[in-house]
């Protein structure tokens, strides 16, 4: 009896922590990623991509964009623009690895439940 009670209390505590964590993560999520500390250094377009996908019912779509998509880049990235084209229904974008100052970047795009993704992405080097 005591064991069952402990189990239930632990389960409820776990759920509350999960919900709080979920909210904390959502607050940090943004539709767009714009990291362009000095626009005059955004000279060469390393990658440009339009990505558009329709939603899948009750699912989150996840896409990973690698820049450069192929080959090796040797110049530091100076500017990253990941722009949602879907307004409030749009997904969340974040940088997974690399970024400004690195020679590559990996961008993660996650749709809202049942919603699609529509992004324009530009990455520049010096
Ligand atoms: C921005 O980059 C340019 C060109 O490299 C440089 O001349 C300028 O000082 C930079 N500005 C800032 C605020 O760092």
Question: What report would you give on this structure?
Answer:
Residues 1-22 form the signal peptide. Keywords: Signal. InterPro entries: MBF2. The chain is an alpha+beta fold and 126 residues long. The protein folds into two domains: 1-30; 31-125. The chain contains one helix and seven strands. It has a four-stranded antiparallel beta sheet, with no helix packed on it. A three-stranded antiparallel beta sheet has the order 3-6-5, with no helix packed on it. A hairpin with a 6-residue loop joins strand 5 (92-98) and strand 6 (105-110). The longest helix is centred in the N-terminal third of the chain and has 27 residues, at 2-28. The N and C termini lie far apart (67 Å). Mean pLDDT is 86; it is low at 6-26. The site of 2-acetamido-2-deoxy-beta-D-glucopyranose has 3 residues, from loops.
> What shape does the CA trace take?
elongated
**Uncertain ranges:** 6-26
Order of helices and strands: HEEEEEEE
Strand order within the widest sheet?
1-4-7-2
Short description:
With 126 residues, the protein is an alpha+beta fold. Helices cover 21% and strands 39% of the residues. The chain folds into 2 domains: 30 residues; 95 residues.
Top keywords for this entry?
MBF2; binds 2-acetamido-2-deoxy-beta-D-glucopyranose; single chain; alpha+beta; 2 domains
Task: Map the helices and strands.
Elements: H1 2-28, E1 33-35, E2 44-53, E3 62-67, E4 77-84, E5 92-98, E6 105-110, E7 117-125
Antiparallel strand pairs: 1-4, 2-7, 3-6, 4-7, 5-6
The protein binds 2-acetamido-2-deoxy-beta-D-glucopyranose.
């Amino acid at each position: 009896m005591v064991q069952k009670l402990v189990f239930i209390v632990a389960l409820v505590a776990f759920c509350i922590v999960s919900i709080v964590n979920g909210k904390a993560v959502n607050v940090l999520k943004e539709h767009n990623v714009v990291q362009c500390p000095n626009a005059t250094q955004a000279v060469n377009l390393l990658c440009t991509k339009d990505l558009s996908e329709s939603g899948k019912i009750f699912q989150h779509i996840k896409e990973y964009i690698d820049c450069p998509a192929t080959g090796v880049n040797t110049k530091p990235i100076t500017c990253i623009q990941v722009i949602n084209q879907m307004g409030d229904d749009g997904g969340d974008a974040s940088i997974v690895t690399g970024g400004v100052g690195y020679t590559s970047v990996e961008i993660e795009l996650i749709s809202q439940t049942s919603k699609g993704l529509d992004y324009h992405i530009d990455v520049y080097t010096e």
